[in-house]
Write a structure and sequence with these properties.
Elements: H1 3-41, H2 47-88, E1 93-98, E2 102-109, E3 112-119, E4 123-129, E5 136-139, H3 143-151, E6 168-171, H4 174-182, H5 186-194, E7 200-208, E8 211-219, H6 229-248, H7 260-264, H8 271-303
Helix pairs in contact: 1-2, 2-6, 2-8, 5-6
Length: about 300
């Protein structure tokens, strides 16, 4: 089975499990704090007492659900940020929050511009600068993606070196790529970057115009994600060594320019605006709604 197909199944199963757990918590809590107080309050003759019984527990319910949800989200974000900081800050990279659940790191490693991006999935991408202006991709064989690449008239190189076993290579400049793969140091570095003992399901080394990238996607672990500091250092060291080998070769004849999307990948835009919008939306709509809705519902039921 294709790894991507398997991951779609795992993601669907994980999402279903989270939904079932949420329902198992929210529904009983809603019955206890919303429907039961409304039923009791509708039978109380004293208007003030009835309103208190019918409004206070529902407001408490919404505060628990909304506050607990956001609290858990921010706890998860801070815990993950601390874990990622421990892995990448010692390498000389400065951490930044991107949007709500993403995180990035920027700086230099071995005198090269370095960037790291983490987002949900989980997906971890590590960029290391290089003057090379061509394209190369190395990953593990996958039937579905090989078929899709064939539809786009892209075909992997035929590899005969046993040291490159279990790897698939696509290249813009085939002759240059074969020269890189022929260096006795290259297979070992690629194996270190792709064949390591970690839960990532999809691993890819990609040479883009101006950057050498390690992409890691999805995880065998359902709810835990970790990057060990020593592993992070080994990844960057292997990328730097591979870049040095590639740059020592004669320049590739088949070259390419970075796309506008690739050029903008390191630009952090509108983070303050996004956070301001989130806070403003919560202050103007979410909190008042959590308080006003139970009160309005109680008034309607009490009046009927």
């Amino acid at each position: 089975m294709s790894k991507l197909v398997g991951e779609l199944f795992r993601s669907g199963s994980r999402g279903l499990l989270i939904w079932l757990v949420s329902v198992a918590i929210v529904v009983p809590l809603g019955c206890l704090l919303i429907f039961l107080p409304l039923a009791i309050g509708s039978r109380i003759q004293d208007r003030t007492a009835a309103l208190l019984v019918m409004t206070v527990p529902p407001v408490l319910f919404f505060l628990i659900v909304v506050g607990g949800g956001f609290g858990f989200l921010f706890w998860t974000i801070r815990r993950r940020a601390a874990q990622l900081d421990a892995a990448f800050v010692p390498l000389g990279l400065a951490g930044h929050r991107e949007m709500l659940t993403m995180r990035s790191y920027h700086g230099e490693f071995r005198g090269r511009e370095a960037h790291v991006y983490f987002r949900r999935g989980p997906t971890l991408e590590m960029y290391l600068g290089t003057p090379l202006q061509t394209r190369l991709s190395v990953d593990e064989p996958d039937a579905m993606t090989t078929t899709v690449a064939g539809w786009l008239h892209r075909h992997p190189l035929t590899l005969t070196d046993p040291a490159l076993g279990g790897l698939r290579v696509f290249a813009l400049d085939e002759a240059w790529a074969r020269a890189l793969l022929a260096d006795p140091r290259t297979p070992g570095l690629l194996q270190r970057l792709i064949k390591f003992e970690e839960p990532f399901l999809v691993r890819q080394v990609e040479l883009l115009p101006g950057n050498l990238v390690l992409r890691l996607h999805y995880s065998k672990r359902w709810f835990r994600f970790e990057v060990e500091p020593e592993q992070a250092r080994q990844w960057f060291e292997a990328l730097a060594a591979l870049a040095e080998i590639a740059e020592a070769l004669p320049a590739p004849q088949e070259t390419a320019q970075a796309s506008s999307l690739e050029q903008a990948v390191h630009t952090r835009r509108g983070e303050f605006v996004r956070w301001a919008f989130i806070v403003l939306f919560g202050a103007l709509f979410v909190v008042p709604l959590c308080v006003a809705l139970p009160i309005a519902l109680a008034l309607i039921m009490w009046g009927s």
